[in-house]
Amino acid sequence: MPLLPPRWRLILAVVLLVSVPIAAGIFWLFLTGVFDRVHGLLPVRPPSADNWRFIWEGVGGRPPVRIPLLNSIVFAGGVAALEVIVASMAAYAISRMSFPGRRLYLGLVLVLHAFPAVSLIIAIYYVLRLLGLFDTLTGVILVKASLDLPLGIWLMKGFFDYLSWDMEMAALVDGMSRWTLFWKVAMPLVRPGLLALGTFALLSAWGEFILPFTLIVSPRSWTMAMYLQTFFGEVFMDFGMFAAVGLFYALPVIGMFLVGQRYLLNIYGGGVKG
Amino acid sequence: MVREAVASEMPQVRPGRPRRRYGVPLLFVAPATILILLFFIVPVITTLGLSGTDLSTITFRQPKWVGVQNYHTLFTDPFVGKILLNTARYVLLTLLFNVGMGLTLALLSTSIPTRFGNQVRALWLLPRILPSVVYVLIWQGLTREAPFGLVSDVLGVSRNWITAEPWAVIILANGLVGASFGMLIFTSAIRAIPSDLFYAAAVDGATTGQTVRRVVLPMLRWPILFVTAYQTLSLLTSFEYILLLTQGGPGFYTTTVWALHAYQLALSNYFGNVQFGLGAAMAALLVVIGVVVSLLYLRVFNFRELVSEPKVEVN
């Protein structure tokens, strides 16, 4: 609001108080991962490297952590790359070309954007089995990228809509094909959009749980989310290691948050669904 | 034949040919179309199809068509009332928290200097961008018995709060994630209010409370409607945090909601026999609701404006 209320300091205090639980949660994760024993938010024993032994040895019959870590990197990277490229191509066509069925296509994208895709999980399981992609990283990458595609197309269409037509027109008159123009002229111009969608896709895939949990079985294809999930419900939960694994897994996200919170705020504030 | 062969070897088709109208755009939308067909359209049909079969672990090789029998089984199940009630409770209470908290945060964080406001909003974004398993791990840790759990410390009662108060934990855990959605949308809506209105209100001697009630809230009517509508649908079908927090327990169906029950019937092996057909029937109802409601959104938000023709035609 353009005029700050006279007692904005009081409001600031209230809003900080309300936000304490979130900060406390992150703080707890950090402390519990680092120290041997933590009561509430109070470390009662010195830091322990034992919490982190999952890095150099397999624990509790789980595969060594580098396997799910690598899988998560491949998964998140694959999803982001696929989503950005496929969504941009479709968005460019919808934004820039006239073809029969264009309105219908855009309508479909909009409906699917609002449609809660998680309700399809049972059928997707079945479809992946039929395609022979069940229990493969490729299968889950395809599914995750597809389910986020309507959002991506919608987002990228907005960016292409804002491009000035003159430059494209000049290129077309000079005899450049639509395909070359897309890659050489249009894509570089929407770089902010590509970056936004890419960041969103990376974060979303990195944290994804339900899809890999449902569509992957073999430990060699586990992602970090599944690896961490196996610590839930152990009879004697070692919260120190549990939190250390969680911290290890969340580190890229926390890092990105510390570096670019303004940027993330813009992306998520810009109509990305949640 | 010869002409066609030559034409197909040439990458560029001469202008004026009717196939060009389809050719190039088709190339661009083909990958997206294939993925949408495979993982949206086919699954919608598959869900409906499977819901009419008796597919289960026992009948996996030869499923039979049973028509509406699954739906009949579903609505004569003695626990369906409990699950419906749980679903209503989950959706309504979480929605109330999400929208209320989102609105509160938007109002508060726009009433302080922008740099503080941004930091507060960024902090509230954390639960959303944190991997869901890590987020639930934090909840597990904070709600443990004393001396470990912070909640037990603060309340002075040592409990495992997830087993003691599963609903409170589920609604809060979902709510802290969901609130940021409303917060961001309401914030941009507040920022879009012309500043003249605020100055006019101030000149008229309105207090902050009056300004919020008479100027800001009326302007937020549409965003509030949008957030409520949108989150109702996503909450109805979501079960991730419940699955991770309580798995539908403790005890018998205590926190099992519709979407979770469908998932567990069809895909998890706790009861030995996976009832794929029955789970699909439950999911089919959600899918139908999802399709109908999403189509409704299209009508509400001005579709014609969104799909205005592209500026220039050359193909």
Describe this structure in words.
The complex is a heterodimer of chains A (274) and B (315). Chain A has two domains: 8-48, no CATH class; 63-235 and 259-269, MetI-like (MetI-like fold). Chain A is 68% helix and 1% strand. Chain A has helices at residues 8-34, 66-96, 102-114, 121-131, 137-147, 149-161, 165-173, 178-189, 191-207, 210-215, 224-229, 239-259, 261-269, and strands spanning 38-39, 42-43. In chain A, strand 1 and strand 2 (42-43) form a beta hairpin. The mean pLDDT of chain A is 86. Chain B is mainly alpha-helical and 315 residues long. Chain B has a domain at 81-258: MetI-like fold (Orthogonal Bundle). The radius of gyration of chain B is 26 Å and the shape is globular. Chains A and B meet through helix 1, strand 1, helix 2, helix 3 and helix 4 of A and helix 2, helix 4, helix 5, helix 6 and helix 9 of B.
Can you give me a brief rundown of this structure?
The complex is a heterodimer of chains A (274) and B (315). With 274 residues, chain A is mainly α.
